[in-house]
Amino acid sequence: MKKFEDFNLKDTTMAFIEKNHFKQPTPIQEQVIPAALRGKDVIGLSSTGSGKTHAYLIPIMEKVDPTKDEAQVVITAPTRELATQIYEMAKVMTEIVPEIRVRLYVGGRERSKDIEQLEKSQPHIVIGTPGRIKDLFLNGGALRIDK
Fold it and tell me: 63, 96, 114: which is the final residue of a domain?
């Protein structure tokens, strides 16, 4: 079994791992993290509670450049509940690197507030439902994910 140290992660990512008392990667993380860090597309299937979300959030945190004022990652989820769950996990990760902006865009919230927030700054990581993300991107262009 690998250790997180074997992935050659940034100090900030390792700080998150240590802060959360992760001892070693789960099987899904052991398979997904190295491939994602190499830029490969991955599909991972694993049971609930197996660490799937961190399997892709850890490589994302490694690749996001907080000096760029642009969306670099878009994560879609089929439901508001799942999108919110992913967002909450990502927010905890970004506490270590507060320069990384992560935002949640789902239906059932005030669209005007989302647009107002986007006019101030673009998030580095976009998490949401396909309908709201599409709406903010195509209908008005407040969300810029076309780079």
Answer: 63
